[in-house]
């Protein structure tokens, strides 16, 4: 089934719905409110469900959108259509200012930060004289098209739902793109994404602004639907409710936002309508029952109702590669070819009193496989993290092609042709193998958010996916290309990481325990692949505990113990080195 068919079906249903003869006007009002909430929830899907940035403060951005249009249309008499960009820009600017302060926060501090500014803005709206303080701004003009003034809930219904549909399509397009993959990596795999050039701070700010602009759009519609604006609907309680809507619907799914809005708003209406009749209107019982029902719903469908429903439908819309697109341009080569490819010179890393890497020196030359071995805790992974910019050095120097890279951010190191895998696999489990691997080619694509939303990125995207497909087939995982990465065995996930690293078009591949979890035949295939890469003049720096694998493959071996280099040489020399036997090989025997 084509991807656009469900959208078309949904659009047709929503168009026909208000035209059904005898439909009560109250239902239309309800649908209008659902549409308005769905816009905010859709932003939260991107921000919280996909990007992992929990916000309780989205209602405040609705307030920016609503107050902007209410003020300009009532004071200056401008058409609401002219104030739409102003509402979106004001919400967007507010998001930039608040986002710069907030998205840097991590853990519990981020949601707490959003609650703090949610409350602060609510009080600001209610204290400003020019915004009418607690009374707000009334007599906001309705939207109009030609001679039609949209005073009634029927006419504005079409505008609200057209906006919901357009926003849903733009959001889905964004998620299904180079920028979308970067956003989707924020929640589960941002360390790896940064190692392939993704500017995660920028991606966080982008989703923050996007969610705020959608909330601003909802606020703009609200102002012309209700025709008066006051602080109450933009307070912290509304902010909590929007987050609730996204979670109930399925915070990781665009349509989850729409479904969540429908469930929560209809449930509230039904309970408010019927429970007082049952219990004589005492003690606001509907709020308590509403809370209990939602908790039960989340128990039944913890990931939200949308994915639960989607699982009942056998149709899947996973992204497959075309394989026909042209190749990506090769990565631009940097640095001098006279210097060694990698030179680690007295590199040092201390964690408090622990010297994890103790003045370690070694080199890796072009088309060479070097292994870094040593007992657990010897400092091998820390050395990888120093080379790739994930950790900063305490001392010493690291050069790539003669260019110093110590204390360079990972996004810059990968540009020099260094790509890596991780000891603890860092894939995004709910993305397919293809999508995960395509993150490796992030720097070789160009399309940004707007281009992707408007679907002008298809040429660029086809090339990225074709490259990812090529690398997946190269490592022998072609049959798994459309599987979710999290569903693969750990050994296969390690191989997916190698394909992702190859997508960066590296000169030096850093592999952290690539053979762990692989069966004998798979190890042989991996060794053959690494030899083939070497034949293609790629270099490999390898951390591995399987000594048979290392001794067969490596040209040179560097041995670390307690952070110190204790030996370096060919596999034959290392095998018989008494210090190495004492510190490591003897322990393995
Ligand atoms: N972030 C950190 N904070 C404090 N100590 C750390 C940190 N990372 C590593 N270490 C310590 O540094 C030392 C080297 O760790 P590292 O992970 O580099 O060893 P390794 O050789 O990769 O070990 P393994 O083979 O078990 O992965 C260990 O003593 C470890 O506990």
UniProtKB/TrEMBL annotation:
GO terms for cellular component: plasma membrane. GO terms for molecular function: ATP binding; ATP hydrolysis activity; branched-chain amino acid transmembrane transporter activity. Its main location: membrane. It comes from the Bacteria. Residues 342-587 form the ABC transporter domain. Gene3D superfamilies: P-loop containing nucleotide triphosphate hydrolases. Involved in beta-(1-->2)glucan export. Transmembrane domains (TMD) form a pore in the inner membrane and the ATP-binding domain (NBD) is responsible for energy generation. This is Amino acid/amide ABC transporter membrane protein 2 (HAAT family) /amino acid/amide ABC transporter ATP-binding protein 1 (HAAT family). It comes from Rhodopseudomonas pentothenatexigens.
């Amino acid at each position: 089934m084509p991807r656009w068919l469900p959208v078309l079906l949904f659009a047709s249903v929503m168009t026909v719905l208000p035209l059904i003869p005898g439909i009560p006007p109250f239902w239309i009002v309800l649908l209008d409110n659902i549409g308005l909430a769905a816009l905010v929830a859709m932003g939260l899907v991107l921000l919280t469900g996909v990007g992992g940035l929990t916000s309780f403060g989205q209602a405040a951005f609705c307030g920016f959108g609503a107050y902007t249009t209410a003020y300009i249309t009532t004071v200056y008499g401008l058409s609401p259509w002219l104030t739409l960009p102003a509402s979106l820009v004001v919400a967007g600017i507010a998001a930039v200012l608040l986002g710069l302060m907030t998205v840097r926060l991590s853990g519990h501090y981020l949601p707490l930060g959003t609650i703090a500014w949610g409350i602060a803005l609510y009080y600001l709206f209610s204290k400003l004289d020019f915004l009418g303080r607690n009374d707000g701004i009334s007599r906001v003009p309705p939207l109009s098209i030609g001679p039609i003034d949209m005073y009634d809930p029927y006419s504005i219904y079409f505008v609200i739902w057209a906006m919901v549909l357009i926003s849903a399509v733009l959001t889905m397009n964004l998620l299904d793109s180079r920028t979308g993959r970067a956003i989707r990596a924020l929640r589960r795999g941002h360390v790896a994404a940064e190692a392939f050039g993704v500017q995660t701070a920028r991606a966080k700010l982008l989703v923050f602004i996007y969610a705020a602009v959608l909330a601003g759009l909802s606020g703009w519609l609200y102002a012309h639907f209700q025709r008066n604006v006051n602080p109450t609907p933009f307070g912290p309680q509304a902010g909590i409710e929007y987050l609730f809507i996204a979670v109930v619907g399925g915070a990781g799914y665009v349509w989850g936002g729409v479904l969540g809005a429908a469930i929560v708003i209809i449930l509230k209406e039904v309970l408010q309508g019927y429970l007082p009749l049952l219990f004589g209107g005492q003690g606001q019982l509907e709020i308590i029952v509403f809370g209990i029902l939602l908790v039960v719903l989340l128990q039944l469908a913890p990931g939200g109702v949308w994915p639960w429903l989607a699982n009942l439908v056998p149709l899947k819309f996973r992204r497959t590669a075309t394989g026909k697109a042209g190749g990506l341009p090769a990565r631009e080569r940097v640095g001098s070819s006279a210097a060694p490819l990698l030179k680690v010179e007295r590199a040092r890393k201390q964690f408090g009193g622990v010297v994890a890497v103790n003045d370690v020196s070694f080199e890796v030359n072009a088309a060479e496989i070097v292994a870094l071995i040593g007992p657990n805790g010897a400092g091998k992974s820390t050395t990888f993290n120093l080379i790739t910019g994930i950790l900063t050095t305490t001392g010493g120097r690291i050069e790539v092609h003669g260019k110093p890279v110590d204390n360079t951010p990972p996004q810059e190191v990968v540009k020099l042709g260094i790509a890596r895998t991780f000891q603890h696999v860092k894939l995004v489990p709910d993305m397919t193998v293809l999508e995960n691997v395509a993150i490796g080619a992030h720097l070789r694509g160009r399309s940004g958010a707007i281009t992707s939303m408007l679907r002008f990125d298809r040429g660029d995207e086809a090339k990225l996916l074709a490259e990812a497909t090529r690398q997946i087939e190269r490592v022998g995982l072609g049959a798994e290309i459309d599987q979710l990465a999290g569903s693969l065995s750990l050994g296969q996930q390690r191989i997916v990481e190698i394909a992702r690293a190859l997508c960066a078009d590296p000169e030096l591949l850093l592999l952290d325990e690539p053979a762990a979890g692989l069966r004998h035949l798979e190890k042989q295939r991996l060794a053959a692949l690494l030899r083939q890469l070497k034949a293609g003049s790629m270099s490999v720096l390898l951390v591995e505990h399987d000594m048979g694998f290392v001794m067969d493959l490596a040209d040179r071996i560097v041995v670390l113990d307690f952070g110190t280099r204790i030996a370096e040489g060919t596999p034959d020399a290392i095998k018989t080195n008494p210090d190495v036997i004492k510190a490591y090989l003897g322990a393995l025997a």
